[in-house]
Amino acid sequence: MEFSLQVSQNKYLPANGREMHAILSVVGESSGPETVGPARADPRRLVEVLVIDCSGSMANPPTKIAAARRATAAAIDVLPDGVRFAVVEGTERARMVFPSASRLMTASAETRAHARAAVSRLSPGGGTAMGSWLAAARDLLPDDPSAICHVLLLTDGINQHETPQELERVLDTCAGRFVCDARGIGDGWHPRDLLRIAGVLRGTAEAVRRPAELEAGFRATIDAALGKLLPDLRIRVRTMPYSTVAFVKQASPTLTDLTGYADTVDDRTVEFATGSWGAERRDYHLCLTVDPSAAHLEEDQMAARVTLLVQGEVRAGPAPVLVHWTDDLVKSSRLDPRVSHVTGQEEVRQAINAGCDAYDRGDRVEAHAQWTRAVELARLARDEKALEQLRYLVDLEPDGLVRLKPNLSRVDVNVSLLFSSQTVHATGTPEPVPDAPVGEDRLCAACGHLSPPDAVYCEQCDAVLDDPGLSGEAAT
């Protein structure tokens, strides 16, 4: 694969400004020979584990377990020959459905038929412990860094047979090993569980309103997983002495906060794993905290450099994130369109979230207020996807009034909470930014700090760097 990286930002900050926001647009494209249809990895590199909730609640109504059987069989049928796969039953513990032993099987006409037969015998009974399900999937995976591993997890219940701490411990051991897409069915599942699993494991969290929709959803999810060509891409952010990373979030197509999962390279460099990639585009929201006491007014200064890496190899960048402190209020008040688009969508989804939380607490007044605010924000941002979702929660009257729907269903509230993790790309092409300087960082003999390769003066102490013999001379 080939990757491109573009940065969108308004580099201008007021003289006392402390936050610099930038949108990192990452595009991956297949670099292999042209073929008909979407690019596909060698099936022998792909691993698929289907984890199906078979707790007692799946029997009520029986359409849920029936839909799960059909959808799982459909997902198995989608797997091409050569893919390694397994099916796991989830209750208060994990049990192998196919194969019967804890190992992977290679997809073929024969193994797919045996797997479908085993899935047809799935029956509900028992509890729910999702951590044990994920641990079983993890233990099936090969110890091969080139393998592209995907888990599809379906549940209808609350993770009530293990503690949140137990689930967190398992998630920590699974992070970076595989991508997990979590799916909900019925009205008894907890959105926060699905969002947490999908967020840590770089997947998506979705749900169906009707069991009959599950089969098509499973096919689409597996088809998307088959389009992945690389197991992981990492975003490296290298800051300057006067800047630090405040947060990094995936902004589209799903909203996921990556900040807590940074891997420290050194005291000024962190990396973020983004999961498996195919031919696609994703946007990331980077926020830097910058120190205005280091400002040289009306000059471009490097705040950070961003690089994309695959297995330690640079695939795009470095791209600069700049800061330019200024007294010109017109320059510093301009909103970059891409940054504005992302922050606008975040505000809409935060309001939807807050309304769902209030509704769960029984506070209908606060739910109505938050969803009304979400409608207003969505209209301002022309976020039609959000407005479409909000129509499941509120009635939008022609006169502009927003009315809470009577007898709102639990499914609609849960699905709306999951929707808050889904976003859309801004349209158009981001403005090009100058290439970051290449080469080794320059070490200051006076204070020991590293500055960019093209720096003349140390960004920490202003000592001259262009002549090793003058490294301790202060800049004038």
TrEMBL record:
Which segments constitute the VWFA domain? 49-233
One Pfam annotation reads VWA_3
- From which domain of life does this come? Bacteria
Task: From the Swiss-Prot or TrEMBL record, give the protein name.
Answer: VWA domain-containing protein
Q: What species is given as this protein's source?
A: Micromonospora orduensis
